Amino acid sequence: MRRFIVVFALFSTLAGLQPALAQTKQQLAWCNGKDNPTPQQMFAGCEAGIKTGKYKGAQLAPFILNRGRALSDMGDKDKAMSDYNQGLKLAPKDLAGILNRSNIHSERGEFDKAQADLDRAIAINSKYTLAYYNRGTLFHKMKDYKRAIDDFTIVIKNAPKFGPAYNNRAVAYSSLKQYDKAIADSTMAISLLPANATDVDRAILYGTRAVAYGKKWDYARAIPDLNEAVRLNPSRVYLMGRQASYDISGQPALAMPDIDELLKLDPKDAAVWATRCLVRTRMGEPEAAMADCNRALELDPRNAEAFANRGYAYARLKQNEKAIAEFDIALEEKGYVEGKPASEDSIAVYLYLRGVIRIRAGDALAGAKDIAAAKAVNPDMVEFYARYGI
Description:
mainly alpha
C-alpha cells in the first residue's frame, strides 16, 4: 500500500509576484516548492515571506500552508497542524492545504477528521483525483476495503496510467480475498512503472502480486515475484516472504538461506530466530530447532511466536503435554482469555495448533473447541494447515 500523497499549496493568486523586502527570489522559489528544496529550505523561504508583513488574506495563505508542509516533513506535526488550520482560515478552499491536513489527522488516528477533510476537498472539486486517491488509502487504513476500491476505481477512471492506484486497489482486493483481481491490478501496475522508477518502488509491486499468488497457493508464481523483489530490494519483508513461501510450499530447506541472510542483517532479530526454529522443525530437526527458539526467547522473553514454535517442535517429538503448555504461554502472551473470541489471526493460529495437539493427546472436546474458535476468525485455517502438513 502506497502512502498518502502530499502536495504544495500553489501561489495561483500571486501571478507575477516579486519577492518582498527581506525575502530573496530563491527563498520565494523554495517556499513555492521549486528547485527541489529541503524541508529546512522551504521553511526558511516561507518564513521570510511571512515576516515581510506584505501579504494578507488569501495571498498570505500559501506561505503559511507551505510552511506547514515543511514543518510536517521535518517531523513537527503539531506546528504543521497549527499552520494548516491558520492557512485554511485564510483560504478555506485551498485543496492542497485540506489534503495535507487530512494526512496529519490520519497519522494521529483521527480518521473521522481525515475523511471529513477529504470529503470537503471532493465537494470543492469533484474531479480532484488526489483526494480520491488519499481517501481510498484512508479507507484501506480503516479496513473499509470496499470503499477503498470504489475510490481507487475513480482514480483509475480519471487517470488510467496512474500505477499506484492499481497497486493500492490490488492490496484492497487481496484483503477481500479477490486474488485474481488483485493479480490483474498488480500486473497492470508493473506494466505502468516509469523508466526512472526506483528499485524500491519496483519491489513493492512485485511483492504485492506475490502476496496474491501466495494466497491462491500458487507458489510457483509467488516465488519468482519474490525473487525479483529480493533482487531489487533485499529487505527483511521480502526475504521473510520468500522463506515462508518456500516453507509452506513444502521446500523448507530452500527457506534456510533466506533465514541465514536475515540473521546476517540483524543477529538479534528474535522473530527470525523463532522462524528458524519452525523451519528446522519442518525439516525434521525438532531437537536442534529448540536451540533457535531458546535463542529467540533469550532476545525477547515474551515472544509468543517462539513459544508457539517450540510447542510445535515438542509436538513433532510427540511430547504433547509440553507442546500444549508452550501454546498456553503463547496465547497468554497474546492476551488471549480462555473462552473468549480470538481477536487476531495469530491467536487463531495458536488455538488451531493447540486444538490439533489436544485431540492427538486424547482431549477431543477441548481440541474441538480450540479449532472452532480458530475457524471463527479464519475459516481457511484447516485448509492452510492441511497444505502445511499438520
